[in-house]
Amino acid sequence: MSQPFFWVLHFLSRWMLRIFYPSMETEGVANANHPGPTLLCGNHPNTLADPLMAGIHLDHQTYFLANAGLWLNPAMAFVIDPFCIPVARPKDKEAGADKGGKDEVFNRTFQALENGKIMYIAPEAYSELERRLRKIKAGAASLALEGESRNDWKLGVTLQPVGVNYESPTTAFSRAFVRYGEPIVAAEWREAYEKSPMRAVRGLTNLLSERMEDLLIQTRNKEEERCLRRIERSVQHDHPLTVSAHHYRTKAILAWLRNLDDAQRDRLFTLAASYDGLLREDGRLDLAFSDHPRRRPTVALLLGLPLFLYGWLNHLPWLLTIRGIWNALGIDRGYKATFQTLASWFLVPIFYLLQTLLFNWIYPEGIGWLYLLSLPLSGLFALRYWVTYRPFWIARLHGKGPHGDRLIELRGELMGTLAAWEVPLTADTPAAPRPA
User: Fold this and answer.
1) pTM, 2 dp
2) In a shared domain, residues 232 and 379
3) Dihedral, CA atoms, 279, 283, 287, 291, nearest 10 degrees?
4) Residues 244 and 191 in one domain
5) How many CB atoms lie within 10 A of CB 402?
6) How many beta carbons lie within 10 A of that of residue 163, not counting itself?
């Protein structure tokens, strides 16, 4: 791929992901921000958004191993073929994919590593809407060790773990925290590989799994995950932290949760489930019942409201179109964030152009360029306003609902129990993350 084309895609991807995941932060970018040969190994909860999240923060071009089924669409194939290597899974072959056989994948990846490229790979192989890391496959370790063996252990391949932590992967305008861990030097496994390739691959895979798990919120099962999410949500709404600090607090809450005795844990699970179930029954949000500090009106909230409404109304056609296309196509919700991002590359410029032409037709005084300039600025302001003052408007617009009093009672009991049992409300961050 030509460098200008790459940097255009890089800029667009970063800009769009910043829109759909505002307040995104990164940690440890220096671990990965160097030329290859590197296998960038990331978790895979959010389909095509995951490699974008992992790669856009680096200053070097990243190439990707991608599902061969994507090549079945000619338009998609044209876009991704210059920087992606197809990998045929069984279901891709059943769908008619004729690319991405095992030999092709290995040979093309070896060639890329020998040319010093950064290759993104998802060792879990499949994408699932879970933030925990599932059992990873041995492919990444095999590629790294065999690539080094083919080049007399002088290639310098590293396996770079990266964990993408979404607060809500399929919800537009949520937050994300991208963590790059300590890299693993494949050549350090030379002696083990020469004694027993299979054991070396297994050992390296286990080490990679440990490094990746440390970058994520690693719950043991769905019951623990559901309880943790309910607790961290309410704690965050009463005591809001940045996305990185909230991530570390959630890790502390998970450790705290596991130290409870069985009776305490069962009581907490039941209480949190009762509260969450009633919220769903009423169609309410926990934020409406919280003590969030931004639930109170401020001068900035009132002064910014007209500008927010201007930005929101001017971007409403785009938002409605995105939602309409999404509903009409019936795409799996795991692709929601990716679809919104990629579709916005094309729809936002089109809508800006059409709206400016309409403005010039209504007001032909030649100031359309001022209106055009106002569109991205007002859109970014509206997004920041909503992210900042969402607690206030949610509390005003949602109300209490038919079970409001019971919800207030259950939430008070939940938060009182957490306070009595000294749930962590803050967490020390080992490194100082920076905004993406």
Assistant:
1) 0.88
2) no
3) -60
4) no
5) 12
6) 27
Distance CA 409, CA 382 (A): 34
Same domain membership, residue 244 and residue 388: no
Are residue 385 and residue 263 in the same domain, yes or no? no
Q: 210 and 229, same structural domain?
A: no
Predicted local confidence at residue 229, as pLDDT: 95
- Write the pLDDT tens digit of every residue in 265-278: 999 999 999 999 99
What is the extent of the structural domain holding 61?
3-214
- Classify each residue of 351-374 as buried b or exposed e, where b means 16 or more C-beta atoms within 10 Å of its C-beta: bbeebbeebbeeeeeeebeebbeb
What letter does residue 433 receive in the DSSP assignment? -
Shared domain for 35 and 130, answered yes or no, is yes
Q: Residue 431: what pLDDT? A: 45
Residue recorded with tokens 């409001």:
404
Q: Which two tokens stand for residue 9?
A: 């895609």
- The CA-CA-CA angle for residues 370, 12, 59, to 5°, reads 125
Query: Which residue pairs from 82-86 have beta carbons closer than 8 angstroms and sit at least 24 positions apart in sequence?
Result: 82/1, 82/5, 83/1, 83/6, 85/109, 85/112, 85/119
Q: In the chain, how many domains are there?
A: 3
- The length of the chain in residues reads 436
Asked whether 187 and 148 are in contact (CB, 8 A), the reply is: yes
Q: In Å, how far are 107, 112, 149, 163, 324 from 25, measured between CA atoms?
A: 35, 29, 37, 12, 30
Beta-carbon contacts of 96 under 8 Å, excluding residues fewer than 6 positions away, are 72
H/E stretch holding 266 reads helix 262-282
Q: Is residue 406 part of a domain?
A: no
Judge if 344 and 422 occupy the same domain.
no
| Structure-model confidence comparison of residues 435 and 187, the more confident one | 187
